[in-house]
Amino acid sequence: MNVSELFMGEYARLYSVSCVAIIVVIMFVMSLRLFLSRRRKPYVSLTLSLAVLIIQHTFATALAMDFGATAEWLDFAAQTLKVLAFIWINTAVYKLYNAASGRLSFYFYVSLIVLFLLAAVRLQVHDWFAGVPRLAEQLGQLGLDLYLLFVALICFVFIPPRIGQARKYRFSVAIYLIAETARLLNGYVWEQPLPAFTIAELYLPIVYYFCLFLLLFERIVELLQSIYRSAITDGLTGLYNRRYFLNRIAQYIRLGYPVSVLFADIDNFKTLNDIRGHQAGDEALKQVAQILWEECEEAGALPGRYGGEELAALLVGSSVPPGEFAERIRRRVEAETNVTVSIGYCRSRKGMSAEQLVKKADQAMYAAKKAGKNRVMPFSPLSSSASAP
């Protein structure tokens, strides 16, 4: 068997369709799993569109195996489902990045109406040109083929600016357009299919669906990361929330690591809110949180928002002295913002729980406030007698 027969021979189309079907099935399983766990509308559209693709490629595979008298109906079903699947899956890609809207639904249903009208025309065209069956077959197929090319061109122009991964999406649709153009030229223009166009027609769809798989996979990873991050972080400051912060302290204590907790509170925060409004308070909180985040990133620490204007940091190990670390934060807040902070800290001791460690750091912070604010204080037994100002 020579190279030409291997890539363009009797079973070449079956190889191509089978490769695409494998990619589509993987995408379907991934999408279905996501839909069952999240139940969001974009995943419904994505899962259903991939289900249609699987059915279409089942018909295309059967067609490539040549089922004789049933080939005409298989070809009609495969072509119609091919256009339907392309419209639906690109709508699903759009929905993964944008909220569903009435305008999108309108365009989607109009495109489906046009598809079904063209499919009906294909069924009737044999009666209209009964004397020339070859012409009737070509005219029936041509309407759907040109419509698919038109829809792909619309997707290429209008969808990329409205989604992430625009370049990857545009590249994938460009590949699809080239493959479909090659197929149309081989089918309707050239008397004998050209080898280069045949290779493009057979194997570029594999590239298209592989690119689509990468795009969907990366988007799903982005969504899962976003969902996970929103569950463990504070929406205003971006710092880790109280539950996650306490869980990490408990985890390190359980594993036997020496840890230190810093507890910081913005001085006179209630007065700032009362005089300048909550917007000014939120802005000050975000500025302090940003400084805390940067210093924690430099020291390998974990920043958190414990509640209200109370921020915290978790230091693991003994390489960074917590007092020096807290003083750097205090100095930066004083120099770079319009507020100051009082910071208390405490090192873990044997038998101490996460809640106890945080409580002692909190007591040290209140001692710093009682001592005059805008200062750093370590925990000491005397700190436990300090009360909030």
Description:
The structure is a single chain. By secondary structure, the chain is an alpha+beta fold. The protein has 2 domains: 3-232, Rhopdopsin 7-helix transmembrane proteins (Up-down Bundle); 242-385, Reverse transcriptase/Diguanylate cyclase domain (Alpha-Beta Plaits). It has 13 helices and 5 strands. A 5-stranded mixed beta sheet has the order 2-3-1-4-5, with helices on both faces. The radius of gyration is 32 Å and the shape is elongated. The model has no long low-confidence stretch (mean pLDDT 85).
What's the SSE blueprint?
Layout: H1 3-8, H2 12-38, H3 41-64, H4 71-97, H5 102-128, H6 133-158, H7 166-189, H8 195-232, H9 242-254, E1 259-266, H10 269-276, H11 278-299, E2 302-307, E3 310-316, H12 322-336, E4 341-347, H13 354-370, E5 376-378
Helix pairs in contact: 2-3, 2-8, 3-4, 4-5, 4-6, 5-6, 6-7, 7-8, 10-11, 11-12
Distance between the termini: 89 Å
CATH A-level architecture of the largest domain: Up-down Bundle
* Helix amount: over 70%
Q: Helices and strands: which structural class?
A: alpha+beta
Low-confidence stretches: none
The mean pLDDT is: 85
Report the order of strands and helices.
HHHHHHHHHEHHEEHEHE
Task: Based on the model shown, name its key terms.
389 residues; alpha+beta; Alpha-Beta Plaits; 2 domains; 5-stranded mixed sheet
In short:
The chain is 70% helix and 8% strand.
